[in-house]
Amino acid sequence: MEQSAPIMLVDFCGVRDKYDLLAELASEIAPRPLVVVDGLRNRTNELTPIRGGEFTHIAAPSQIFRSSAWSKLTNPFRRYLLPQDDDLVCLASQLTAMRQERDSGARHEDAIESLKSTSEFTDSCLRKYRPDLIIIWNQFHPLSRAAQVAARRREVRVAFMEYGLLPGTLNFDLHGQMGESDIVQKASEFQALQLDFDDVHKANSVLAALRWQQTNRRTQTPLGTAGRRLIEKANGRPIVLFAGHNDHASGTTPYDDRARRFHSPVFESSRQAADYLATIARENEWFLVYKPHPFAVRAQRFNEGDHVTLLADYDINSCIDLADCVVTTVSQASYVALLRRKPLVMIGYNQLRGSGCHYQVESRQEVRSVLKSAIANGFTTGQQTAWSIHVARLLKYYLYSFAGHAPRLEAARSPTQLAKTIHDALLTAPA
Predict the structure, then answer these.
(1) At 90, phi and psi to the nearest 5?
(2) Which residue among 36, 119, 230, 249 is buried most deeply as judged by most CB within 10 Å?
(3) What value does the mean pLDDT take over residues 226-248?
(4) pTM of whole model > 0.85?
(5) Residue 421 carries which DSSP code?
(6) Between residues 10 and 431, which one has the greater pLDDT?
């Protein structure tokens, strides 16, 4: 390992608010250069290290992100062939389904071309820069998975970044995200990390401030009169909010043994879970509100009825405030629900697994009884205590402050600490 070998960040998800953090990181990891690979050709803010350091930006070819109209015109009968790699073959269907959620005309052939271009382009960057570590934004996006295929072939160590569990923060994971993260897979070690009274007090102050600010990563429509209409429609019945997730970028697709073990043990998709919850809502005189992930609203629509309604692009804080109970598989709404002090039922796994903050479902047979318990008992005193402790550990040991769509959460770890985490990881053998 060379101390001057670069760190490479690859973002094929189109994250536009990461550059301020990366400017700080480039300074902190010096003399190592920071190489950023993404598809953003017209950045609104130049990424310049604050105190020395070296930064290189590489704009990925456009065919990674969209179909090539010219190739369709010049050779409409072109055969698209993937390398004989099971990972990439699987990903073609995943990427096609993801694109069809926004564009029903998205073609499987174009997904194949995108994945092949992603793998080959990432490989070329790895050959040229020879990084000690490649950090990939979102482990589960199909283009991110294709980049991981290239990294494995070059035997380059991989880590992951993503928007943080709390507004104004960033997650950094060395081995996997959400249900695959170290704080879940090594839960006993994480929960043994030392806390004192001041840590918990700070966590409670942060939670109170975030609850008052009602910060959201994305600007959404206030619920307004739609909330009053929803309460009238519920007509006194308990309101259960189900927050869907982005199926194709959350570890649940393809729905295989790995997905069941680490992310979603009960349901194959958000829509499947919503259909089942709608059935038991009718049977138990509950009123179900289904809020699909913002990227999948069109694909996850279903017929509404007297016992169920669908809310699309409304503010998640307002939707949660109306609910008697919140249910999700892996959605970030889980943390928002606990911020809003609502009882949370997890039918899947994310970083909350084993924290004691929520109600956990392990099988379809448990869904009904666990929901009944959550509605009857609410957000218990024990769960509230566990939540404060969980957040205190996140702030002290896991989350990094990040100025993006939400204001930076200064109580989280600093970019200097992120650089140290990266440095320390590179001194140890991969797990």
Answers:
(1) -65, -40
(2) 119
(3) 93
(4) yes
(5) H
(6) 10
